[in-house]
TrEMBL record:
Pfam family, one: Radical_SAM
Superkingdom of the source species: Bacteria
Occurrences of domain Radical SAM core (ranges): 75-296
Listed NCBIfam families: AmmeMemoSam_rS
Cofactor: [4Fe-4S] cluster
Protein's recorded name: AmmeMemoRadiSam system radical SAM enzyme
Keywords on record: 4Fe-4S, Carbohydrate metabolism, Glucose metabolism, Iron, Iron-sulfur, Metal-binding, S-adenosyl-L-methionine
This protein's encoding gene: amrS
Length: 365
């Protein structure tokens, strides 16, 4: 795949020239080594004039206002609207990708909407969004664009949310998350075998990202694990995963076990039964994780937040619709006073379960 003359060439920072003249991209652990005009595996970074450039800066595959619960984030400004967008490409090659039309796109015409960072932030503000989400495909591959949008958003008091697989090298990781307020990180499985054979990547860099977020940042983050029958849903793997989370991240990082539906190159697997999600949630809570959720299914019990001290239901949820709200104005259980981990306001937002597509070109530049 080669860069075409019509693409833009936005300069990037993390690369170096190899002895053989190729240029290595150092953003993610794939370390693509590229000849002039070649693109990396992610399709949006490539070698142009002897340096690595980003070819998707300022363009998006579409915008939509979502509930923040859809990211999923259950402990970050619940009930509020988030303006979501992605670009094209991805740095992993998951056979089960649930967003493959965007993440696997090699066609730059997927990027229909042009959007400068300032315009994006202004439109999000006009539409009453509390956050901007970099999602649909992994923002680490378009980090220069995401960082500029996040910087513009801060001027308007709009938070930034990364939805990411966390597959990124140390230095760009520090740079990228400096601009993020919250993240949902996919922990796709807990074996190197799964990461290598099914995603074409490695597990350890993802664990490094999670530990980095916990120990060295104030970014609020939650974890999502998509459970695929027969691939990553055994009791032993779920025990190991949740014990690792407890030991390395502590009890307060929420984890979402979500249902797989057959997609992309994994059409031969059946959808995840709800009982598997409930089993994973039970294992997580048995191991001490305070906030474990089921996702992509109707399960009011598994979707709601409970006080880990007295068991009171703190936030009722069914899919993306909020129910009861039993938190004090400063985020404590209103029965026993125990704090609930997360970023809360005195009242939940009122966005509900709506999804509203947004055409950027309808707004003034
Ligand atoms: S960000 Fe893209 S070009 Fe860079 S190493 Fe990763 S896959 Fe390759």
């Amino acid at each position: 795949m080669s860069i075409t003359a019509t693409n833009e060439f936005f300069p990037t920072q993390y690369w170096h020239v190899l002895d053989d003249g190729r240029v290595q991209c150092d953003v993610c652990p794939r370390f693509c080594k590229l000849h002039e005009s070649q693109q990396g595996l992610c399709f949006v970074r490539g070698c142009h004039d002897g340096r690595i450039v980003l070819t998707s800066y300022g363009r998006s595959s579409g915008f939509c206002i979502d509930p923040i619960e859809k990211k999923p984030l259950n402990h970050f400004l619940p009930g509020t609207p988030v303006l979501s967008f992605g670009t094209a490409g991805c740095n992993l090659a998951c056979k089960f990708c649930q967003n493959w039309d965007m993440s696997k796109s090699r066609e730059m015409d997927t990027l229909a909407d042009e959007a400068s960072p300032l315009k994006l932030a202004r439109v999000a503000h006009e539409l009453g969004c509390r956050s901007m989400a970099y999602t649909y495909n992994d923002p680490v591959i378009f980090m220069e664009y995401a960082i500029d949008v996040a910087t513009a958003c801060r001027e308007y008091g709009i938070k930034s949310v990364a939805v990411t697989a966390g597959y990124i090298c140390d230095e760009p990781r520090r740079d990228f998350f400096k601009y993020m307020d919250a993240a949902n990180v996919d922990l796709k499985a807990f074996t190197e075998d799964f990461y290598w054979k099914i995603c074409g990547g490695h597990l350890q860099p993802v664990l490094d990202t999670l530990v980095y977020l916990k120990r060295e940042t104030n970014v609020w983050f939650e974890i999502t694990t998509l459970l695929i029958p027969g691939e990553n849903d055994s009791d032993a793997e779920l025990e190991a995963l949740t014990q690792w989370v407890m030991e390395n991240l502590g009890p307060d990082v929420p984890i979402h076990f979500t249902a797989f539906h057959p997609d992309w190159k994994m059409l031969n697997h059946s959808p995840t039964p709800p009982s598997t999600l409930s089993r994973a949630r039970r294992i997580a809570m048995k191991n001490g994780i305070r906030y474990a959720y089921t996702g992509n299914v109707h399960d009011e019990k598994g979707d709601s937040t409970y006080c880990h001290q007295c068991g009171q239901k703190l936030i009722g949820r069914d899919w993306y619709t909020l129910g009861v709200w039993n938190l004090t104005a400063d985020g404590h259980c209103n029965t026993c006073g125990t704090p609930c981990a997360g970023i809360f306001e005195a009242q939940p937002g009122l966005w509900g379960a709506r999804r509203r597509p947004v055409r950027l070109r309808q707004y003034a530049d």
